[in-house]
User: Fold this.
Amino acid sequence: MKIPTRFSAFAVAAIGIALAAAITIFFTSGDANRSQVVVYTSVDQIFSEPVFRRFEAQTGIEVKALFDTEETKSTGVLNRLIAEAAHPQADVFWSGDPVRPFLLMDRDLVTPYRSAQAAAIPSSFKAGDGRWTGFAARARVLLVNTERLGARPAPDSVLDLADPQWRGEAAMANPLFGTTTMHTAAWFSIWGEQKAKAFLNALKDNQVRIASSNGEVKRLVASGEITFGLTDTDDAFVALQSGAPVSVVYPDQGEGDMGALVMPTVVVKIRGGPNSETAVQLIDFLLSAEVETMMADSAAHIPLRDGLSAPEFVRSGSDLKAMPLDYADVAEQMAAIQPWLRQWAGL
Amino acid sequence: MGGTLKIPQQWRPWTMVAAAGCLFAGIALAPLLWPFFGLLDTAGPAAASGIEASQWALLLRSLGLSLAVVIGALLLGIPAGLLLARGDIIGRQALWAIQVLPLFLPPFLLALGWFYLFGRRGVLGNDLSANLLFGPVGHIAVLSLIFSPVVVVSISLSLWRLPSSLEMAARTVASTRRVLLGILLPAVGPAIGLGALVVFVLAFSELGVPMFFGVDVYPAVVFSMLGGVDYDPARASMLALPLFPLIVFLALLERRLGKGWVFASQTTPLAECAPLHLGAWRTGLSLLLWLWVLASLLPIAGLLSKALAGGASGQGVQAWLGDSLANSMTGAAVAATIIVVIGTLVGYGVARRIPGARLFEGVGLLAFVAPTALLAVGLIALWNRPLTQWVYAGPGIIILGYVARYGIIGVRSLAMAVSQSPVSLEQAAASSGAGFFRSFFCIVLPLQARVMAASWLLAFVFCLRDLESAVLYYPPGREPLTVRIFTLEANGPEPLIASLALIQVMLTACIWVALFWLFQQSHRRRY
Assistant:
């Protein structure tokens, strides 16, 4: 029996496509001779990728990066690291907040590294044993839509989220994900369980809209869907840059107030990562003044070193009243409150 | 000893189907079952906590929302399907081709487009539209519109295969309206049921759109166990348990409905006959259908307006695009090839009722419906080992994920096609001395060549649009375009995101044009 010509053409085409794809994959799977480093990061890709590109340009080392999504911010990548614990794929974790690396440390997934570049970082933002080092911080702020606000005085405290005068007009991100998880845990750490739970329940009563992410909060405020929302400085910066009618309020800065939550990004070296030498080079680069300046300019992150410039609306560390927190305690709180938070969120 | 292994002739079909089916089960079922071993290990805490009352309530709510989406899709899809398949609608073929496009795009992108249009400050938005969009109404409306083409396609395929004598006889005694509603509509009942079933599955497993619109759904509970701080795959498995009886029920229902519409017509099929004259209704109904199709394309217009308004530079877009387009294409191409190979072999087994084939088909259905987060955890646990780094650390893991999740597309489409081709040809070959493999490669495959090509393109498109599974296990530096759009969406400039989304749309549209052309060729050849 002879195979019809038409079928032969299809078969050849299909085999050709499959072969071409296989060959492409085989030959594009990276230059085996080129040094590389694998980094997982929960810092927004739009800000972190240019940093990696500059590192590549300066060192010739290829950066293979894995980014988080806005919805699972800080947690998707973290859980990937935990899931891969038996055979780590990552060399470096650059976390968007200072708390989640503690969950890795609790599982002994981090190895200490004291970078010479970290000398200028204040001691409160790094571990004495070199297990984690913070730099380029964000703060939690209230982003306010000035058009919807009208002549009313702007909210100036996170407590305003539960104030009946803003009923149905405020938003925050789902506390199960992202920096909102840390912020919620920080309330439990500062206020204690009873007051923190009462506050979160009051948010529900006040019809605070629970958005899927901080970026979504920004979008809701910028588009005038709501009057104000709790988000991060980098999200607020993007909204300001887009020309949206918004203003930024650093909350709780008055006398006797608890202060705003300040969250340095944190870099840790993963234990057993496949590229230990290049990992050290990347960590040194990330902790340099050059990267803090880059992050300040592009993402409105607060430089933790003295003497670095930042965009106008970014307050310096000394100009900002920060919540007095022990990040390790916040990490413990964060893990402990999950079942209750899940119930609160209806999941 | 020393001789070649020879499989007895009567065992050859079974051996072939079993080999392909076992490979498929290894790819798709093993990762799904893997988290359950964790459940056994930690049976104490995970099992003791069980599923809470609020979670049962959320499960019911999700089922209700999915049913509402089904009703919405049926309300749109049934009239559109009947009219596009049999009415003399103006621009009928173009309409049919265009209306399917949104189905092939990641629903999240379309939700973003709707937001650009009907958000409070959107092009067409106001307070009311925004309030409706961010809630169950928006969720149901957007998903109904996205998934209604499933019903249209299901009805069309069924109608075109109906024997023309049915409609011809009716035409002589009844009006067009009565032919459509009294004869054709009841005749495509099983196809409507099948379409409703697929819509239900797609709506229930959707995570991106409800999260975007702030609607709580049950898959988010499972996801939160794997994406939240208290990473707990065993508990996620426990929460996924109630979905398994649901999947079995849907599979049985699909099988029952499938019986009603998979048949080979021995008389002239309707596809060959001239469409029904709608008379005075023609212009009005054509206008309504065009409006419906244009409405479904509105979010793409929203993305376009955002991309143009922001003035994202070509160089900027290209830089941010990186290798993601190539990653998408190569991963999807290889996966689609594997899906077609497995689909052809297992699908043949299903069509020819080879023992065990239905079981492998069930595996495919299970992997398609099960929460993607569960599949992701299993894939990581299974493949992240020293010996399998060549798979896990490269594009191989993405390909395996695609094959697991979308393998059912190949199995179902080939099973349907083979079941409609006469078995007598294979019997004739056998009686003239041809062995099974010769008959399979020289009769079955040539007959199904176009279906295989169409199935390849369909699987390719579904792999291209995948977001929710690849995002959970893509290798560093190897993200497909949909993942890149999703990760860049965090604080990325909206014009850039919209531009990247439009590239995804254009790529999908090109493939759909090829698929539609193949479909038409296949019809012309057949009829």
Remarks:
- Chain A has two domains: 36-137+263-316, 138-261+338-344.
- Confidence is low (pLDDT under 50) at residues 1-7 of chain A.
- Residues 5-27 of chain A form the longest helix (23 residues).
- The first strand of chain A starts at residue 36 and ends at 41.
